[in-house]
Amino acid sequence: MSVQPARRIAFEVLDAVRSSDAYANLLLPTKIERARLSTADAALTTELTYGTLRRLNYYDRVVELAAGRPVDRIDPPVLDVLRIGAHQLLAMRTPSHAAVDESVSLTASVAGRSATGFVNAVLRAIDRSTPEEWTGRVLATARSDDERLALEHAHPVWIIRALRRALAAEDRADELAELLAADNASPRVALAALPGLAGVEEAGEPTRWSPVGVALASGDPSRVPAVAAGRVRVQDEGSQLAALALSRARAIEPGERWLDLCAGPGGKSALLGADAALGGATLVANEVVPARAGLVERAVAALDPRPEVRVGDGRTIGDEQPAAFDRILLDAPCTGLGALRRRPEARWRKSPADVAALTALQLELVASAAKALKPGGLLAYVTCSPHLAETRPAVQEAVERHGLVAVDTASALRGVTREPLPTVDGAHLQLWPHRHGTDGMFIQLLARVNR
Ligand SMILES: C[S@@+](CC[C@H](N)C(=O)[O-])C[C@H]1O[C@@H](n2cnc3c(N)ncnc32)[C@H](O)[C@@H]1O
């Protein structure tokens, strides 16, 4: 029996994510396009791939219980087939015979005939109980409340604890389950119409917050002509607000110099560059990884004038160009814990050790950005992570060590957003997937006060 392309592609992506650290959100669209899948098959492939990757810990526990052995004693390609099979049986309600038979055929082609009996037996064992019965059985294996939440909502325990702390800092710890559920829902595609180059109405319906935001009703964004021309770009609304917080917090004086310190792949540079061009300012987009600087070049290609794109370490710009910029965006490298809904496997890749390394880098970048800021200038410190270790220390050092003043960011965005953002305690703005429908961006404006 031949294997349906949807299941084969889902397997290939899981295999590449596991064995060569591939990014599913980059690899999957390429494979779907190459296979010339219909819209329905593309949607099925995406659900098989993303749904399985998100809930890996849950399906691994199901497989362990059904197979009677730990997953590290199962051949990795066979385990991937079982994970995809379990997702079909427990979450997609695929008819049993299709899920089992196709998984067996897939096993024969990727792991050899000798493994097919095992896959058949494990999937039939999974199919003998209802999804609800499996949930009960899996949750009963949890050794703590947090492990139970981790299995129920498919997040690692350390991320659950970090998100709970970040919510608790806003007195919202009781919203944890809602946040975890939002991380598991596929976001709608949001687009940004670049100011001066495209109108919102060209591409779809206006979004809730961003004045340049467009919601794509359905389909492939690259088929929208303005997207193909680079005048409208796929960009989360939270990211749009981060760029607009800097470009629209105050009127632009012609001749202002702006810097995007960590620009790759260039989403925010494109929006900043468009606003800069309209206001008579110039933008320099800096990125340390040359290949990512190439992506920035592509992102800003439709702009006139085009921002200068440079390859360099943002940590040295402050010494190289002190007091040179009127506005700086520091969209810091971070764990991305606020964007887990977009990158289904990301949650399983990160570790607490990444946080410590990133906090250190963020502090060095803040020091450099603060030096590069002119008196009277404005800095936006941004992360797509609400982790307190990636937000609080950078802002605290900007104020206490580098003499910047925290600006009330929600107020600065008041006249900018379509709908007023809910008020927050403190000068920063923390967006949340479950509250705002955006990625979990943290945005703090900081000013160097004129002396
Ligand atoms: C969160 S991403 C920026 C996303 C970008 N602003 C956008 O909207 O498309 C952070 C970027 O910082 C870059 N980066 C990491 N270390 C850096 C450094 N020392 N100097 C400059 N850029 C750095 C990473 O390569 C990555 O492209």
UniProtKB/TrEMBL annotation:
Gene3D superfamilies associated with the record: NusB-like, Vaccinia Virus protein VP39
Binding site for S-adenosyl-L-methionine: C262, A263, G264, P265, G266, G267, K268, E287, D313, D331
Molecular function (Gene Ontology), one example: RNA methyltransferase activity
Keyword Transferase: yes
Domain of life: Bacteria
Keywords: Methyltransferase, RNA-binding, S-adenosyl-L-methionine, Transferase
Active site residues of this protein: C384
GO BP annotations listed: regulation of DNA-templated transcription; RNA methylation
Record InterPro entries: MeTrfase_RsmB-F_NOP2_cat, MeTrfase_RsmB-F_NOP2_dom, NusB-like_sf, NusB_RsmB_TIM44, RCMT, RsmB/NOL1/NOP2-like_CS, SAM-dependent_MTases_sf
Keyword match Nuclease: no
CDD domains, A to Z: AdoMet_MTases
Similarity remark: Belongs to the class I-like SAM-binding methyltransferase superfamily. RsmB/NOP family.
Protein name: 16S rRNA (Cytosine967-C5)-methyltransferase
The species this protein was found in: Diaminobutyricimonas aerilata
